[in-house]
Predict the 3D structure of the following.
Amino acid sequence: MVSEVPDSDRELPSQQRSRAASHAGLAPDTVAAALDRLGGHISEFDQRLLIECPFDHYVRRLDPYPAIASYSHISPAVKEIGRIISERVGERGLERYHQGVMLTLILRSMARLQATNLPEDIKSLFADNFSRIARNIVRDADSPGFYLYPNFSKELAICTLRLIPAGVQKVELNGLPRRYFLTIRSRTLLGSLSFLAFHLGGIKPLYEMHTDSRDPKAMVLFHPAGWAQFYARVARLLEMNPGVKGLFGSSWFFDPALERISPELAYLRTMVTENGGRLIYLRPCSQTSREDALMYSAKRRKAFGEGQYVPTEYLVAWPRRALIDWAGRASSMGPGPAVPRHEHSPVMSGQDGARPKERPASHPSGKEVTRG
Ligand SMILES: CC(C)(COP(=O)(O)OP(=O)(O)OC[C@H]1O[C@@H](n2cnc3c(N)ncnc32)[C@H](O)[C@@H]1OP(=O)(O)O)[C@@H](O)C(=O)NCCC(=O)NCCS
């Protein structure tokens, strides 16, 4: 769940928003030309590396990844090839190599995507993400260290079509991690287990949702209508994939304590819990996740400082039938996805759904993170 970006790669949400508007489609020729240039850079590190270990070799080791796995999964074969490359060209060379792998994958996935039966809007979100990722590589926009594991894992998983952009969140095929069962509170254990067994129908395969703070077009959709649109897309994916039992995600922002401190975020939990999904306590947040929770909110920072709020991670799980039924009800309410009851009004007034406000300029780090 956690993938941290070096400080200089983080940016203010206002910058995210302006970048969100600026991604035009990227032509395959442009990607291919960038790949050639990258090959030239890598040859400066080691003339024979790409002859003995072309990008395709690495790509072929990504292909047998299990169908149900986290985006952060790395196989021993990929670790090994990374070790060998790093020994030959150092970490900076390995990063260039990983960039080449990403561009190779983007070229392949741009073509493959058209042959999939994914809905057109998801294909177009993939195209946006490919553009964003390729552009960052072409412009060398990321700080040293980003193209090393685990930092670039989410973007790699997008390029392999494993992590599916669906709007405000991205989803992958995964299962509930077993470690979650160790943390469920004993007084809710029976109820939670029976929900997972009888309502969800098992702990895998499920779609797992993730926030991707590096994707500005996704982050501007962080409002009730954006989430409704996302859940409607997941419902569609579930309909197309009858074997997938539902959706889950975990975050500080599902915490019921926010009802008291940040009531405008309560919709994140109630959209699920009032429509057949369940909330399950996991644990107090890790340090990085606590930083996420406190980053943009003076109120949460104050409450935390006064001992009134401890950022806590909760799981939400939404069984497929209940989610599909919700989407049916929502679409019958009008042309767009329904706005949930607990709407946070300011974000609803933007014509394109983008929030009209600027974030507070003085949050603790002034930086963006990519976690979730
Ligand atoms: C998750 C996240 C996108 C939610 O953002 P959000 O919808 O703006 O909600 P937040 O409560 O965080 O908003 C921060 C501040 O902006 C204010 N705000 C929110 N919407 C506003 C609006 N429309 N107009 C004016 N101010 C607004 C809030 O009041 C809050 O300040 P306060 O709590 O001191 O009052 C944001 O907190 C974030 O990017 N966090 C870091 C990354 C992260 O947590 N990722 C998820 C990991 S699982």
Confidence is low (pLDDT under 50) at residues 1-23, 337-371. The chain has two domains: 1-161, 166-372. Residues 211, 213, 222, 251, 253, 262, 264-265, 292, 295-300, 346-347, 355, 357, 359-360, 369, 371-372 surround coenzyme A (CB under 6 Å).
